[in-house]
């Protein structure tokens, strides 16, 4: 059955399906119950699944993740919501020192199917700590899977895949795309679903490979349309999974185009794009016509909202990157 | 527990809890408390009343500005005026304040221009004032963080060797009921306690942390937490400006004279939404709001003043008129604030020159110029 859903509603449907499929699945976080989350992603879930399964927790992120670890040790599959990107740091200790490493420390005896959902990124005119892109911290930590959805259909499938995964998953949701609508196939069954650790070519093209994930995918697709008017075709790839990285999909594209621009909202310096640039250079060195270029945020704290349009890569900044790659 | 039992929020209980320190009843009747004598001149009482009215008016104006799209967000203090003005007026100039994002009334008492607050919520700055200017630290959005800074600051005051002298400074940290669940707040209690730091922890228990009622944070009254950490905790009627003033004064005095920390739980109520993006009708019963309206912090002072002939109608009218003029002027000043220059993004990131920032700034300037032709 295909329905047109917002990304937030698609997440909601995906979570609903996950709760339905497995009685061990729990949803936890601040305001996820009665309120349905500040973005309404968990709207109605407590009403339908009860307070034992959809849990309004005390206001304590370290507590939320720490107890989710304990629940997972007891056989549950907690899906935790961190209310905003900037508030994951009180839980960083539990995520980095505990969640990521317990499997290895138990020689594989322990499984930690914990999903940590983080609404991420800027562009909604918010105050401080509500617009960050903390992916590099987590992709740097071995033992965590890190994924980012960019559209309603992926939101629906990827959250279910994350919940059934036996590893801890950091799940980024692009908050400024929560209200974007698209058709979602909500028929039961998982046939035809792209595995959630695969990248996807979302716009085929010949001139430049543009790599993006989460909120920037839409911007890059818009840039691809604009570039077409100038007779350039951009191959836009939605990475979807940041760790593990589906490097083969990336390599086969860059080998054809010979040019690559990486786009993300996070600061460029030591950002996720640095890893992509290095890896692509290693694998595609003799195919490259230009260095891998990065378009992203500045090496400054996320600015006050009246300046965020300057900070966030937009269509012009992406096209500028494309121009630079072409002009090399 | 069922979902329904969660609706029995503490706000619905009619009688105030017996341990509540109160000097002015909701009906405006002055009561005495053996431990908290308070002697205010009529002039001082009129001053407190004016503060309450001004603070409420500024807050309402900010809410209106937000509704009109002039501010990105506003966290309203409606209902919490007495807790903030009472505690704020208890502060000596040297005392240091560590606020959250809702302490507009305390900011008022410290002399911070409300325009600064509007600038923050308008998205013009990531706070944007010098804490030393009014001994009022930066607004803190990450819940509970500032309580540790406050504890550390108080430890610094202690190390300066000024406690017990006329140079003694107290430190006060503000936070909400939800914040008491954070590790940071509990760690601040531990540090303050074991180092006997000169600090007052001022918790405004407004009954809700966004949609979560107090029961989702604690099974015991919050003021009782202090005992487990080894320092005194008390609960004051947070809608009673006299009691908040007296209790905070005394706790600050204890801090300044080396007697260590105190936790004050100001029992109050958030009358509005959590912020302007929140919809409290999704989780809160209207009856609860109605019952708290009867305890309005401004009305009770007014009733007291009228009964005791501390002010006449002309005074109340003039305060209202002043508040109105002030708000109109504040609105004008708010709308006149220009957006920051794009290159301001690169300012104040570091104290000393930083090549990466300069490089990015230069490139961005070039990029912006490329649109000029
Ligand atoms: C560490 C952290 N987690 C989550 C949030 C999002 N958030 C902002 S205010 C709030 C509720 C705070 O409640 P409380 O401490 O009672 O203070 P109040 O806003 O009611 O004054 C939440 C969950 C945050 N700002 N910081």
UniProtKB/TrEMBL annotation, chain A:
<dbReference type="Pfam" id="PF02779">
    <property type="entry name" value="Transket_pyr"/>
</dbReference>
<dbReference type="GO" id="GO:0000287">
    <property type="term" value="F:magnesium ion binding"/>
</dbReference>
<feature type="domain" description="Transketolase-like pyrimidine-binding">
    <location>
        <begin position="5"/>
        <end position="180"/>
    </location>
</feature>
<dbReference type="InterPro" id="IPR033248">
    <property type="entry name" value="Transketolase_C"/>
</dbReference>
<dbReference type="InterPro" id="IPR005475">
    <property type="entry name" value="Transketolase-like_Pyr-bd"/>
</dbReference>
<dbReference type="Pfam" id="PF02780">
    <property type="entry name" value="Transketolase_C"/>
</dbReference>
<dbReference type="GO" id="GO:0009083">
    <property type="term" value="P:branched-chain amino acid catabolic process"/>
</dbReference>
<keyword id="KW-0560">Oxidoreductase</keyword>
<dbReference type="InterPro" id="IPR009014">
    <property type="entry name" value="Transketo_C/PFOR_II"/>
</dbReference>
<keyword id="KW-0670">Pyruvate</keyword>
<dbReference type="GO" id="GO:0003863">
    <property type="term" value="F:branched-chain 2-oxo acid dehydrogenase activity"/>
</dbReference>
<protein>
    <recommendedName>
        <fullName>3-methyl-2-oxobutanoate dehydrogenase (2-methylpropanoyl-transferring)</fullName>
        <ecNumber>1.2.4.4</ecNumber>
    </recommendedName>
</protein>
<dbReference type="GO" id="GO:0007584">
    <property type="term" value="P:response to nutrient"/>
</dbReference>
<dbReference type="InterPro" id="IPR029061">
    <property type="entry name" value="THDP-binding"/>
</dbReference>
TrEMBL record, chain B:
<dbReference type="Pfam" id="PF00676">
    <property type="entry name" value="E1_dh"/>
</dbReference>
<dbReference type="InterPro" id="IPR001017">
    <property type="entry name" value="DH_E1"/>
</dbReference>
<keyword id="KW-0786">Thiamine pyrophosphate</keyword>
<protein>
    <submittedName>
        <fullName>Pyruvate dehydrogenase E1 component alpha subunit</fullName>
    </submittedName>
</protein>
<dbReference type="GO" id="GO:0009083">
    <property type="term" value="P:branched-chain amino acid catabolic process"/>
</dbReference>
<keyword id="KW-0670">Pyruvate</keyword>
<dbReference type="InterPro" id="IPR050771">
    <property type="entry name" value="Alpha-ketoacid_DH_E1_comp"/>
</dbReference>
<dbReference type="InterPro" id="IPR029061">
    <property type="entry name" value="THDP-binding"/>
</dbReference>
<keyword id="KW-0560">Oxidoreductase</keyword>
<dbReference type="GO" id="GO:0000287">
    <property type="term" value="F:magnesium ion binding"/>
</dbReference>
<dbReference type="InterPro" id="IPR017596">
    <property type="entry name" value="PdhA/BkdA"/>
</dbReference>
<dbReference type="GO" id="GO:0016624">
    <property type="term" value="F:oxidoreductase activity, acting on the aldehyde or oxo group of donors, disulfide as acceptor"/>
</dbReference>
<feature type="domain" description="Dehydrogenase E1 component">
    <location>
        <begin position="52"/>
        <end position="329"/>
    </location>
</feature>
């Amino acid at each position: 059955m295909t329905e047109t859903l917002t990304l937030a509603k698609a997440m909601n449907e995906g979570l609903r399906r996950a709760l339905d499929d497995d009685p061990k699945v729990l949803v936890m976080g601040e305001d996820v119950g009665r309120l349905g989350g500040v973005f309404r992603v968990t709207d109605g879930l407590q009403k339908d699944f009860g307070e034992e399964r959809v849990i309004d927790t005390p206001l304590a992120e370290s507590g939320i993740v720490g107890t989710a670890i304990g629940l997972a040790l007891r056989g549950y599959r907690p899906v935790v919501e961190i209310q905003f990107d900037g508030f994951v740091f009180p839980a960083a200790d539990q995520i980095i020192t505990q969640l990521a490493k317990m499997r290895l420390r138990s020689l594989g005896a322990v499984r930690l199917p914990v999903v940590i959902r983080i609404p991420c990124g800027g562009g909604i005119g918010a105050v401080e700590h509500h617009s960050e892109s903390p992916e590099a911290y987590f992709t740097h930590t071995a033992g965590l899977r890190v994924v980012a959805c960019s559209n309603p259909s992926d939101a629906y499938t990827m959250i279910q895949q994350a919940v059934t995964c036996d590893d801890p998953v950091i799940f980024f949701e692009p908050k400024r795309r929560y209200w974007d609508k698209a058709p979602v196939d909500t028929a039961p069954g998982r046939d035809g679903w792209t595995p959630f650790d695969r990248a996807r070519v979302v716009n085929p093209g010949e001139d430049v490979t543009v790599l993006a994930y989460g909120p920037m995918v839409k911007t890059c697709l818009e840039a691809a349309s604009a570039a077409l008017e100038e007779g350039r075709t951009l191959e836009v790839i939605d990475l979807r999974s940041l760790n593990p990285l589906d490097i083969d999909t990336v390599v086969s594209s860059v080998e054809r185009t010979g040019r690559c621009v990486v786009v993300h909202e996070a600061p460029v310096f030591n950002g996720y794009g640095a890893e992509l640039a290095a890896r692509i250079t290693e694998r595609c060195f003799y195919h490259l016509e230009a260095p891998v270029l990065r378009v992203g945020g500045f090496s400054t704290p996320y600015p006050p909202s009246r300046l965020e349009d300057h900070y966030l890569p937009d269509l012009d900044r992406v096209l500028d990157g494309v121009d630079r790659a072409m002009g090399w | 527990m069922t979902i329904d039992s969660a609706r029995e929020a503490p706000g619905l209980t009619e009688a105030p809890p017996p341990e509540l320190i109160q000097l002015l009843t909701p009906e405006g009747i002055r009561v005495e408390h053996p431990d908290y004598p308070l002697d205010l001149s009529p002039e001082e009482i009129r001053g407190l009343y004016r503060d309450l009215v001004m603070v409420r008016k500024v807050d309402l104006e900010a809410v209106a500005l937000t509704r009109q799209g002039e501010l990105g967000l506003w966290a309203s203090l409606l209902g919490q005026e007495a807790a903030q003005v009472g505690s704020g007026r208890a502060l000596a100039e040297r005392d240091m304040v560590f606020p959250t994002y809702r302490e507009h009334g305390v900011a008022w008492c410290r002399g911070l221009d409300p325009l600064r607050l509007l600038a923050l919520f308008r998205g013009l700055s990531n706070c944007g004032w010098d804490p030393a200017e009014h001994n009022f630290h930066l607004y803190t959005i990450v819940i509970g963080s500032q309580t540790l800074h406050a504890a550390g600051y108080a430890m610094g005051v202690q190390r300066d060797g000024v406690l017990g002298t006329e140079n003694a400074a107290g430190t006060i940290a503000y936070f909400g009921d939800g914040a008491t669940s954070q590790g940071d707040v509990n760690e601040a209690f531990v540090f303050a306690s074991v180092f006997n730091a000169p600090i007052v922890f001022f918790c405004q228990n407004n009954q809700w942390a966004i949609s979560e009622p107090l029961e989702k944070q604690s099974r015991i009254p919050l003021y009782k937490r202090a005992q487990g950490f080894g320092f005194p905790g008390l609960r004051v009627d947070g809608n009673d400006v006299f009691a908040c003033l007296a209790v905070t004064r005394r706790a600050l005095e204890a801090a300044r004279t080396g007697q260590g920390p105190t936790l004050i739980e100001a029992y109050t109520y958030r009358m509005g939404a959590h912020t302007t993006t929140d919809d409290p009708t999704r989780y809160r019963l209207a009856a609860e709001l109605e019952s708290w309206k009867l305890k309005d912090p401004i009305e009770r002072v007014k009733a007291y003043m009228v009964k005791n002939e501390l002010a006449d109608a002309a005074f109340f009218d003039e305060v209202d008129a002043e508040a109105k003029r002030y708000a109109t002027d504040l609105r004008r000043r708010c709308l006149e604030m220009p957006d920051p220059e794009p290159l301001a993004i690169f300012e104040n990131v570091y104290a000393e020159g930083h090549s990466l920032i300069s490089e990015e700034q230069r490139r961005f300037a070039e990029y912006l110029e490329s649109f000029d032709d």
